[in-house]
Amino acid sequence: MSExxxxxxxxxxxxxxxxxxxxxxxxxxxxxxxxxxLGGCAGTFKRGSYTFDVGATQVAGLERGxxxxxxxxxxxxxxxxxxxxxxGCSVTLGDGSRPINLWHDPLRWQKxxxxxxxxxxxxxxxxxKIHESNWEFVERDPILPVRNFWDLSQLIxxxxxxxxxxxxxxxxxxxxLLTITGCHKDRRLRSFLDLxxxxxxxxxxxxxxxxxxxxxxxxxxxxxxxxxxxGSMQILSDxxxxxxxxxxxxxxxxxxxxxxxxxxxxxxxxxxxxDRRKNLLQMKASDIVFSLPPQSLLDLIPIDGGLSTTYRxxxxxxxxxxxxxxFYGALRRVDLPVDCPGHIQVFDEHFGSLFISISxxxxxxxxxxxxxxxxxxxxDIDQWSNLDSQAYTRKKSVVSKQIRAILDHKFDLLxxxxxxxxxxxxxxxxxxxxxxxxxxxxxxxxxxxxxxxxLSSRTxxxxxxxxxxxxxxxxxxxxxxxxxxxxxxxxLESKGRHLNIPVFN
Length: 505
Hints:
The chain has helices at residues 13-24, 67-75, 106-116, 121-138, 149-158, 161-167, 174-180, 187-201, 210-216, 234-246, 297-300, 309-316, 382-385, 389-411, 426-433, 476-494, and strands at 6-9, 29-33, 44-47, 50-53, 59-60, 82-84, 90-92, 100-101, 226-229, 250-253, 256-261, 269-274, 280-285, 287-290, 323-332, 343-348, 352-358, 370-379, 418-424, 464-466. By secondary structure, it is of the alpha/beta class. Strands 8-7-16-17-18-15-19 form a seven-stranded mixed β-sheet, with helices on both faces. A hairpin with a 3-residue loop joins β16 (343-348) and β17 (352-358).
């Protein structure tokens, strides 16, 4: 392998996007993925005739001008077949009131929220102004956080007067916006916001950055939207893989990076990789794009491997991400309610938020007349990490029954309704994705770790770049794709080149 080559670590959507872009730009790129399948948390698995999405079940950014649309157009690959979700989600607060539907049509959503939360329009109007300002900013591809003059130049280029105004809100939370608009006494509105924000920022309204929360609360509405992929979430990975291989990329599936070292006064990384047969491969690269959680660096780069003690300590001090428990089930479609929404969020006294995704008829996830159902809950990873095998098995069984009971009650299901059921835990995600302790979703979007105050894609170790859900604000395939675009632009700039992806108006 040439010393001018680039190694991308991790074959999730972020790593695949970065690898595909770099290959299209003519670089010699090797993508190393430890699992036997690409996709990471946006991957899939099969159980008989059923296909289950591992984690992510919906996609943002497929609309004209959205991040996936922009990148796929640039990579000259087709957009996946997808259907807009309408409603994007149906939220049940557990207070006996009817569900809150997040309609795609902005006027219909306005009518819905006026009926559900009377007197709150001033809050939603402020969120809308922030949302519009944010998109003006994001579509110009700013670099955040700023770490050098070029980063600063890209930030300044993206700023407009409206961004300067909303910038004054950068240290506020969504709860602060409720107070400013006089809506803080509406407990039902607050409950709704806490549920929705937990999905996207892993934080409640009191801890979600206002600039981030105002945008994700309106992602389901036109001209943007949430999409359901025909087939499975794996389609995104397959398309990016095809682009990567078409442009000369080298793919190492079932290979695990075990050590990364950059010796003092060296311009080259030495990378050790174990193949499927446990043979040790020695590789070299001028740059490494690391798409795994940054916490993984602590195990892969030894103390003398080039990463400063200060930076190592800063990674250790990152807020602890959540884990997830996910129930995967298959059942008869006739036993589900007529016109059942594809995505439902339910408040539960024990779990807090339960997010449910149900396959559509003819979307290739289940045979005709059947449906897959995925129900996920964020959990504290410490609740699962220190259990012995017997305690783990017992806890897994208890949690599975608890989630089944919620689903049976919600949809009035019987034992005979179910054809398949299983549960994954943080330990399962650790085995599947290689993420430390099975953490998912990146860093919570608190004002102190959002945007200009977040973790930079540039590391102090020259040539080592970070991307993924801990870098760009927001998880999901759209957020990690934005992070990949940002890091590729930075990497190319470091080599005297520029990457400009067209913006569609």
